[in-house]
Amino acid sequence: MTYNFDQIIDRRSSDSIKWCYYGDAIPLWVADMDFRAPEPVVRALGERVAHGIFGYCGEPPELRPLIVERLQRLYGWEVPPEALVFLPGIVSGFNLAARAVTYPGDGLLIQTPVYFPFFHVPRNHFLRLDEMELTLRDDGHYEVDLDRFEATITGRTRVFLLCNPHNPVGRVFTQAELEAMAEICLRHDLVICSDEIHGDLVFEGHQHIPIASLSPEIAHRTITLMAPSKTYNIAGIHASVGIITDPELRERLTAARADMVPRLDVMGYTALLSAYRDGAPWLQQALAYMQANRDFLYDYVNERLPGLTMQRPEGTYLAWIDCRGARLQGNPHEFFLEQAGVALNDGASFGKGGEGFVRLNFACPRATLTQALEQMREALDHAS
User: Fold this and answer.
1) pTM of the prediction?
2) pLDDT tens digits, residue range 53-70?
């Protein structure tokens, strides 16, 4: 089946947070796509609805073997079926991880700027935030300063919350980078909780590597979180999977649910199964379309938006745009919302190193992206 990613779909009438929150502004902020989900997923959900009974649902028997085979095929990672823990969402997963392996007063290590729910975890569990800022080179590329990474760890640090591929800076960490960070974590007896929700959204020339797949020793100390929600644009259906090969660590996370974090519901299981089983053709086409959008955006920002620069994201459909050279008065997020009618994410919400940046979601029809960029260009022209 050939999918039409240029199709404009009205989302303002669908209670979409992305499209309704900022009124008439073109919304390029929330990390969901403006593309129709894969037809097999839509069909599977429709058939489940047509059945008309929505009672308690057991786990589909083919689901675990399907995911185990997928991990082996994509990453050469052999995972036993019992290592899978189904969860309603990634954010629930990393909060459960913190609850399972920390006590109040312990430290949680993150790398900023980073996905803003990471900052909620210390507050939710009375932890200290141990944060290190990723190094932004002169060419706009981000890297991990390993000396700073290790120096940030204290005697109370218990968990490293990793984001890979990284949201918002778009890095897909290399094997060497992952091995170096994992070695430091093992030496300091840290548990790694790895948010890999964007792991399927990686562009040509890059390869996602689950950090737990590097060695049994690293897997023994790692909670990996994956989901089809970003990949197949089903974020409104809560379904994800934790991969925890160590039985004791898995039991601790399972106990941390304490009847507060539910299991998947009937629609979650249906979407998870159909996406991973039948979504590959859609994903291949979507990645090609988004890579073309990424390259169009890269050229437009660097050539036609004075004072703005960006690097090509290696993964995710999120562009991290440096607006500091434009010398705008006030916050660039507010400037583009008020002067251009374009809603972007405020870089400051991603923590240290995010000031003066905006995050832009380019998983939309090219016409929508072009219109937003034209309005941003006009606003910059009037401000100069």
Assistant:
1) 0.97
2) 999 999 999 999 999 999
SS (H, E, C) the chain: CCCCCCCCCCCHHHCCHHHHCCCCCEECCCCCCCCCCCHHHHHHHHHHHHHCCCCCCCCCCCHHHHHHHHHHHHHCCCCCHHHEEEECCHHHHHHHHHHHHCCCCCEEEEEECCCHHHHHHHHHHCCEEEEEECEECCCCCEECCHHHHHHHCCCCEEEEEEECCCCCCCCCCCHHHHHHHHHHHHHCCCEEEEECCCCCCECCCCCCCCHHHHCHHHHCCEEEEECCCCCCCCCCCCCEEEECCCHHHHHHHHHHCCCCCCCCCHHHHHHHHHHHHHCHHHHHHHHHHHHHHHHHHHHHHHHHCCCCEECCCCECCEEEEECHHHCCCCCHHHHHHHHHCEECEEHHHHCCCCCCEEEEECCCCHHHHHHHHHHHHHHHHHHC
